[in-house]
Design a protein that fits this description.
Length: about 290
Amino acid sequence: GSVEPWEHFDADGVFEHFPPESPQNNSVTGEEAVAKGKDHKPWHHRLHRHAADLHQHTKEHAGRYFLVHTAITFAFAYVLREYGPLRFPHERAQERDPELGRMVFAYGLFDEKESWGDDFLLCLMSWCCWSIQWASTLTGSKVRLIGSFWIALGVATMDYLELNSLTAGISHILFVIIAVYYRQKLRDKFGLESGTVETLCQDLFVWCYCCCCATAQEARQVAHVRTMQASLEPFQRAAAPPASLADAEEPGSPTSSTAGLLEPRDNAALSARDGELGREVSDDAGY
């Protein structure tokens, strides 16, 4: 049948029926009933409408929000690096040797060990300011995968929500590729399995869906585990020849064949001195 003025379909395609009030109770027109009834929609309809409006508002002002977000991040990073009480990752953390051939990192994605102790600030930074922590991890003197902290921080801003809204998610995809590349480099630094399809898929999944956990995991690995090069240095020093022998050796001549050999004149001098000592001994014996 016909639709009354107070009956209509809303923007979501849901049929709404708001009958006018009775004449005994100050009746209103159909249009006023519709306007009044909109405030009484089901909660999930109101939530959906609010989310749609918020998304539209964010998309319209995404460029402005991205610039503000980036400026605040760089300012906070500057204050931390110049006036912060600690450096990230923790420089005084106890280190341990890497496990050769190990596929996973020394700490799990949701590993709570020491998260409320020595690693509290590190985990807090990874959760609240993951871009600053990620840049600090890759530019630290221990691994030095990126030369400049500020360049690394600029790369991390590619994954900000506002920029993703402007680029339809393309910036997020590009950043994930970069993050996975450096995560594979970290694996090489610590002797972990890398370059395989399995590890690539794991790193892609982690950086796509849990960037804060990935940041904390990488930072704790760098803070607490020695790199392969640092672990092998004691053995390299033990295997190296002493400096005195290295200086005494001549190019192309083995040490065992030349060390201790005397010139003929040196042999003659030693023989003469031995003869004098022999005469002194015989004189003393006669006394």
